[in-house]
Design a protein that fits this description.
The protein contains 14 helices and twelve strands. By secondary structure, it is α/β, with parallel strands linked by helices. It comes from Companilactobacillus farciminis.
Length: 396
């Protein structure tokens, strides 16, 4: 390829860099026997009844295109599930769109809304795709540091950032949060809504971890401010279906119609087999997340106690399957250096908090979507590392 052809490509695409989390994971995978606590996906298999539904669909030759928005029996099942679980009221014929995971959902939503010069407000630390998705569309992310307020955005901070950044067109909410595990109560969401209803902006609410909430019942922002909210959800985390790539985008009918135009261009439609698996999950998998959630909570409690015993400041997460911990005083405070030395010396992979943006510095993210054996091995290795490096610090 001629080297100068890159100069003809879209600058916002060329400027996108490979995400640090992928580079770090590649490094971890190159070390034989490394204990990996970075993986953000369930380590459970997809429930058997869902797999059998997909196999049946293949055997029955249900392998052709569906309509772009998704099979309408599936969309009706999604609407019923969301109503039963979260009191959401979406018309399956006009307000729900089936996407290739929440990742495609974010991509299609941002593409449908953002223009050059727009801004996207992102509470930080945050998952790593939102900022690049904004940049891709010529928009700029505005990161709001939540590290001093329990990793949650306050209405006061929201009001101030909207006042000083009038070009914000989207507020991106993700709760329960990746990477922090923080979530919002109904009262907290209502306080945010009081601020937001005064502004002509979209709330894009990524609630993919809604079924993995431990300390209180999950409340969807779609019930709080439905006229401004675009809800993202799916089956990846709740039903251990990451590889199936199924998500939903829900919102006002006229808005969903515009997003569907981008979705059509990107995918035509998502795979028919995934849709039949999703139909089974939404119709007959109401209780599938329960046993997984109980196991995650047990793992969380073991890891949480072990980390506190080692001296790590470790908030009790409200949901998801991550602990976002502060490196103790007396140890290396550069989280990237800490994580790389830990990987090299102890063969333990934990993600640096700064990979997740402003407010993540000096923190580490651990996933407890891991076996109890790996959790115990993690605590042993981290304990050995802390003892050795604490001694080194005291000797200096």
């Amino acid at each position: 390829m001629k080297s100068d052809l890159i100069s003809l490509m879209k600058p916002s695409v060329v400027a996108i860099k490979q995400q640090d989390i992928f580079k770090f994971n590649a490094k971890a995978k190159s070390i034989p026997g490394a204990v990996n606590m970075t993986v953000g996906e369930p380590n459970f298999p997809t429930p058997d009844h869902i797999k059998k539904a997909a196999i049946a669909a293949i055997e029955e030759n249900k392998t052709h295109y569906t309509v772009p928005e998704g099979d309408h029996e599936l969309l009706h099942a999604v609407a019923t599930y969301l109503h039963d679980k979260y009191d959401l009221n979406y018309d399956p014929e006009s307000q729900i769109l089936a996407t290739a995971g929440v990742t495609e959902g974010v991509f299609s939503v941002f593409n449908a809304i953002l223009q050059t010069g727009d801004e996207v407000l992102i509470p930080s630390p945050s998952f790593t795709i939102y900022g690049p998705d904004a940049n891709f569309n010529g928009a700029s992310p505005v990161y709001l540091d939540t590290s001093k307020t329990g990793f949650k955005m306050t209405p006061e901070a929201l009001a101030e950032v909207l006042r000083t950044n009038p070009r914000i067109k989207i507020l991106l909410l993700n709760y329960p949060s990746n990477p922090t595990g923080a979530s919002y109560t109904k009262t907290e969401l209502e306080a945010l809504a009081e601020v937001l209803k005064k502004h002509d902006i979209f709330v894009v609410s990524d609630e993919i971890y809604s079924e993995l909430t431990y300390n209180f019942k999950h409340v969807s922002f779609g019930t709080i401010l439905p006229e401004q909210t675009i809800l993202l959800n799916g089956l990846s985390k709740s039903h251990a279906m990451t590889g199936w790539r199924f998500g939903v985008v829900c919102g006002p009918a006229d808005v969903i119609a515009q997003i569907n135009k981008i979705h059509e261009l990107a995918t035509t439609s998502i795979t028919s087999i995934t849709q039949y698996a999703a139909l089974e999950a939404y119709k007959n998998g109401y209780d599938d997340p329960i046993s997984m959630r109980k196991e995650y909570q047990a793992r969380r409690d073991v890891l949480h106690k072990g980390l506190k015993d080692l001296g790590f400041e470790c908030p009790d997460p409200d949901g998801a399957f991550y602990l976002f911990i502060k490196i103790p005083e007396g140890l290396e405070q550069d989280d990237v250096k800490f994580a790389n030395e830990l990987l090299q010396e102890e063969h333990l992979a934990i993600l640096p908090g700064s990979f997740f943006g402003i407010g993540g510095e000096g923190h580490l993210r651990l996933s407890y979507a891991a076996s109890m054996d790996n959790i115990n091995a993690c605590l042993d290795k981290l304990g050995d590392f802390v003892k050795k490096h604490s001694k080194l610090v005291h000797q200096v």
